[in-house]
Structure formats: C-alpha cells, structure tokens
Amino acid sequence: MQEKGSISIHTENIFPIIKKFLYSDHEIFLRELVSNAVDATQKLKSLAQLGEFKGELGELKVRVTVDKEARKITISDRGIGMTAEEIKKYINQIAFSGATEFVEQYKEKDAATKDQIIGQFGLGFYSAFMVAKEVEIWSKSYKEDTLTAHWTCDGSTEFTLDEPTGEHEKAERGTDVVLHVAEDSDEFLEEARLKSILSKYCKFLPIPIEFEGEVINQTAPIWTKQPSELTDEDYTKFYQELYPFSEPPLFWIHLNVDYPFNLTGILYFPKIKDELQLQRNKIQLYSRQVFITDEVKDVVPEFLMLLHGVIDSPDIPLNVSRSFLQADAAVKKINTYITKKVADKLAELFRKDREGYEQKWSDIGLFVKYGMLSDDKFYDRAKDIVLVQDTAGKYYTLNEYQEHIQANQKDKNDQTVILYTTDPEAQHGYVQAALDRGYSVLKLNAVLDPHFIGQLEQKLEKVTFKRVDADTVGKLIEKDETTESVLSDDDKTKLTEVYKAAINNEHMQVQVEALSPQDAPVIVTVPEFMRRMKDMQRVGGGGGMQMFGSLPDSYTVSVNANHPVAQRVLAQEGEAGQKLAKQAFDLALLSQGMLKGEALTAFVKRSADLLTAE
Ligand SMILES: Nc1ncnc2c1ncn2[C@@H]1O[C@H](COP(=O)(O)OP(=O)(O)OP(=O)(O)O)[C@@H](O)[C@H]1O
Asked: Where would I find the Histidine kinase/HSP90-like ATPase domain in this sequence (predicted)?
C-alpha cells in the first residue's frame, strides 16, 4: 500500500501556528511524545487487564535515543501501536483526539483507564514539528495480522503513508517516532540537554523511561500512594529528592480528592530561615505524573505559594491562557479545597499536639497570618488556632488571651486594650512598667504584625491594640480612677515652663501629669495613632525618614507631678532648675534608647557634674 494525501485541518497551514504559539517552550516536544508513548503503553496494559489483549506484554519500557551524526531523536514504545488506518484517523486529523475516543469507548468498562491517559487535546504530537523538519512514525498495532505502518511528514500539510514489508517491517509491537532534527534546533541533539528535559518533565511518569541505557524515572511517586502506606521517613525522603540540601520540612499534607475534581499531591510546610527571603515557585504542578510547570499562581492561593511540594491534577487545563485559568471553575474549586485542607491540617495539629504546634509556631505563624490577611475564608477557619505570645513566652489563642486579660485590661469604655511590644529589649522600661501594673504584654514583632493588628481590631469586637510606649502606663488603659496631683495649678504651669525651656524642642509636647511616685520622673511616649502613621509612611518608602537618630515629629513628654524630682526642680531657681529638668528628660530618652551623639555626650558630662556637685 502506498498512499499520498492531505492532512485534514480546518485552518490553512496550522503548523506555523503550532510552531510559534502553541507552546512557548520548544523543549516540551519531548514531554508530549514521551507522554503519548506512556499513554499507548497504559492503554495496552488496560486492554490486557480487560482480557482484550491476550499476548505477552513483555518489558514495557519507553526508550529515548539520540543519534547526533544522523541528527535523529527516536522515541520508542511497546504500547498498542497504530495501524495505517489509525494513523490516518488519529494523527492526520488534528484536534481529533484518539485519547478522547478511547476513553469514550472504555469508560463503562474501567473507570481507572480514563485517569491514566494523558492526552486530551489531540495536538501534542504536532509539537514535534517545533524541533523537527521531518517526522516519521513506524508503528505496529497490537492487533493480530496487521502490517507495519510508516508515516512521514515534513511539516507541511502533506504526508506519506505506506505499509512496508520485508526488511522494513517492524518486528515488535509498538511505535517508534523518529524526529529529523531541524538546523535551528541543534541543542536538542545534545545528550545532556535531552537528559535534563527528561528529568524535568518525566521524572515521575508511570512507565519506565530509558535514556542512554538508564531508567530516569520513578514510576510510583509517593503522592500516588495512600497515606496509610507511607511513613514519615517516606515523606521526608521525597522532600529531599525534590529539594536537595533543604532543611527537613515541619510537616506535610497529603492531598487526595476525586470528586468534584481530581487532585492528588503533597504540600510541605518548609522551615523558614528568613521571612524576607521566602522562596516562591516551589510547588510543582503535574498532570497524571507529567510535570507541567512550577508556576502555580492561580491554582494555589497566593498565601500558600510559600509551601513546597507537588500537586497532580488532570482537571487543570494546561494549554490555555492564564486569564482562562483564573476563570476556570475547576481551578477555583481546587483553590478552595487546598485552603480548606491546609486549615484542617493546622487545626488537627493544634488539637492533637498543642505543644508541638507551639514549637513550630515561629515558622507556621507567618503562613497563618498571611493567610488570614489575604483570604477571609481562611481567617474564619484559622481564627481559633492563631497564636499570640506574651513577653514571658507563653502562647494563647485569641479567645484564651482575651479571657486572660479581660479582668484587668478593660478601659472605662468597656474596650479591651491589648498591649504589645515590637521590641522587648528597646521598650524594656515600658514593658516592665506595664507588667508591674499587672498588665500582660504581647510580643508582636513579626513583619506582618502591624497588618495583623489592624485586621484583629476590625474583626474582634471592642478590642484595641496599644504599643506599651504609646502612653504613660496609667493612661494606656484609661480607667475611671485618677491619681491626685500634689502640685497646685500654679506649680504645674511653672514646672511646664521650666521643662519647655530645658528641652527647647517644638516637637516635644510637655504636660504635667499626676502619675504614681513610683513611676519615672519623666516619661516620653509617642501616641499609638501617630506611630502607626509613621510606620505606614516608612513601609511605604516615605522619603526623608531616617532610620536612626531622628526623632519622630510628635512626642509627648509626661512630667510626673508626684515624683520627688518635680519638687526639686520647682525649688531650684533659674539655670539650676533647667539643668535638673534636662537631666530627667535625658534619662527618659536614654531609657528608650533615643539618646545619641552629642546629646548623649552632654548627658554624661552633666551627670558627672551633678555627681560632684555639693
Ligand atoms: N506512541 C503512540 N502509540 C499509539 N498511538 C499514538 C502514539 N502517539 C500518538 N498516538 C495516537 O495519536 C493520537 C493523537 O496524539 P496527540 O499527541 O496529537 O494527541 P493526544 O495525545 O490525544 O492529546 P495531547 O494533545 O494532550 O497530547 C493519540 O490520542 C493516540 O491515539
């Protein structure tokens, strides 16, 4: 038989389109052809199981070989093969997918068959023309008494098809696809290049793939197995294979769902070394064990891109544009499912092993807070398992914490005031003053915490947050009780004037307050609102703000009317009073780590003078 004909397509010259636009990455031709070979092999295995193929299966391997001299790449399989008629039907009719027909035909008999077939679009084969100037198919069907079919095509819409006999006849069942590599695709004749493409896309294919006499894949990666079959070691070992030289993961989630969409995979929570250097693009997306991409944006919720691992789903459309992917209903469902699974896993860890959960909190806290901030549904799922830590290191859930502080930290308007520090060292004096009052102070010093605080204030009822240095301790949580001042109004005015003159800085708002005699003589604070505004400005890259040494624009200087220093300042005349006031003010700055440079030198000198004075 010798036949010539035209490939039936609906668009004039579809090849240039395929070549240029179908796949931006030429290397995926190998993925497509190896997938076809694997499909053909899987089909044969299914037929054998169904009793429709009774012959010897033999060793079912897919072989990839390259002959640099002859400029040929060959992909061989021992699958079902094709007759000349089938080649006409499946190969010539672009966009008519043999895979679809196969599934239709056999779906009643064997549901699993459907999932084992990669091809869905009927275009994969033609990706060969991205790198080849001519493609040959040599195929022999599994069906008895069929001839070898030989098809050639040079990338135009013309093909030849014959059924050679004698020495050209194919001895074994299966298909050899031979690519005659085009001049502009020399790179694909390099063994090393082919090997790296194979290990990128085919590392977990279900049928052994041999290249240069070596099998390059694991046919049953652990995500295809049942969690009950696997040990912790299996999971950590697989993690090491995916990400060599990484620290062991904290824990993992085995994804496994088959309705209303199909998805398997394993997501790992990595150990985070540095919040600012989070690694994205660490999740690999597979479709029936064929690697597709590590850009899982849209498929995985944004905040979970920090996770590592693999996701395998035949339901994710692969050859479509990004905007379509975003709108795809299956993708949306997958997104929701993954979010839910992650929340469930965290809740389970929290319930089953609170101590272990707390130990991991410094790593997982970031995911949880990021998730709560970026996804309202996740907020609802995670609000009972998000932890806060006080300055003594004890962890609480939000409910536990509100319960813990509610007797002592409600203000006169029935608002619960949560006190926090962003730097327990630098704000030590304020933290200590709050603790001495019997208040509790949280450590909220993570990158996301300012946003987290904002969110909690919106979501929780009657709760406000105040940094410990936002006010003098007596006024952080405003109660009805007031401390009486021992000073007369005249004295207060006088004291204010002395301090103003001593400080001589318009950004410092001096006020005399009746604090406890045990409090410091002078306390410098920044109102919560002002500080947050400044922080925002800084995060937003607001120019002009210097990181060190510069004072914020607005400070409150609270002079303690009830401290003995107030009396001493008032008792001194002129310069001497100001000198004392300045000293007390500098002490306040010093306690907040704000006394620097010249001011610090002057303070040290003044202290020495005061020590030697009569
Ligand atoms: N190695 C092979 N052995 C047997 N049949 C094959 C082989 N390669 C291709 N075919 C047949 O040709 C058809 C078309 O292949 P093609 O790669 O173009 O599309 P597909 O595999 O169905 O879908 P996809 O575009 O997702 O790859 C296949 O469905 C299959 O019937």
From this structure: 25-167
Residue of 260, 265, 261, 262 lying closest to 282 (CA atoms)? 265
- Separation of alpha carbons 460 and 403, rounded Å: 13
Going by pLDDT thresholds of 50, 70 and 90, the confidence category of residue 535 is: confident
317 burial level (CB within 10 Å; 0-12, 13-18, 19+): middle
Q: Does ligand 1 have an atom closer than 6 angstroms to the CB of 91?
A: yes
Q: Which of 283, 309, 282 is nearest to 221 (CA)?
A: 309
Take residue 323 and report the two structure tokens written for it: 């905007």
Report the pLDDT averaged over residues 526-553.
Answer: 62
**Do residues 18 and 7 touch, judged by C-beta distance below 8 A?**
no
Tell whether ligand 1 has an atom less than 6 A from the beta carbon of residue 175: yes
What confidence tens digit (pLDDT) does each residue in 250-271 have? Answer: 999 999 988 788 899 999 998 8
Side chain identity, residue 479: K
The residues facing 512 across adjacent strands are 559
**Residues 6 or more apart in contact with residue 599 via CB below 8 angstroms:** 586, 589
429 ligand 1 Cβ < 6 A: no
Q: Regarding beta strands 308-312 and 283-287, do their DSSP bridges make them parallel or antiparallel, or are they unpaired?
A: parallel
Please tell me the distance between residue 103's alpha carbon and the centre of ligand 1 in angstroms: 13
Q: What share of the chain is helix, strand, coil (3-state, %, to 5)?
A: 45, 20, 35
C-alpha 175 to ligand 1 mean position (Å):
11
User: What backbone torsions phi and psi does residue 278 show, to the nearest 5 degrees?
Assistant: -70, 140
* DSSP for 219-275, written as a single string: SS-GGGS-GGG--HHHHHHHHHHHSTTPPPPSEEEEEEE-SSS-EEEEEEEPPPS-G
pLDDT greater than 60 at residue 22:
no
Q: How far is the CA of 16 from the centre of ligand 1 (A)?
A: 20
Residue 314 in contact with ligand 1 by CB distance below 6 A: no
Nearest-atom index, ligand 1, CA of 97: 22
Q: Any idea of the CA torsion for 487, 491, 494, 495, to the nearest 10 degrees?
A: -20
- Mean pLDDT confidence for 105-110: 55
Name the residue among 196, 175, 199, 242 with its Cα closest to residue 39.
175
- In the block, residue with structure tokens 């085919």: 202
**CA distances for 51 relative to 43, 44, 48, 110, 457, angstroms:** 12, 10, 5, 12, 66
Q: Is the dihedral of CA 593, 598, 599, 604 positive or negative?
A: positive
Is this structure's pTM higher than 0.80? no
- Sign of the Cα torsion 24, 30, 36, 38 reads negative
Please state, in angstroms and rounded to a whole number, the distance separating the CA atoms of residues 397 and 407: 17
> What is the b/e burial string over 346-370, where b = at least 16 CB atoms within 10 angstroms of the residue's CB?
beebbeeeeeebeebbebbbbbbbb
3-class DSSP state of 493: helix
Dihedral sign computed on CA atoms, order 117, 122, 127, 129: positive
For the Cβ of 125 lying below 6 angstroms from any atom of ligand 1, the answer is yes
Residue 63 and residue 69: Cα distance in Å, rounded? 19
176 close to ligand 1 (CB < 6 Angstrom) = no
Which pair of tokens denotes residue 8? 């039936």
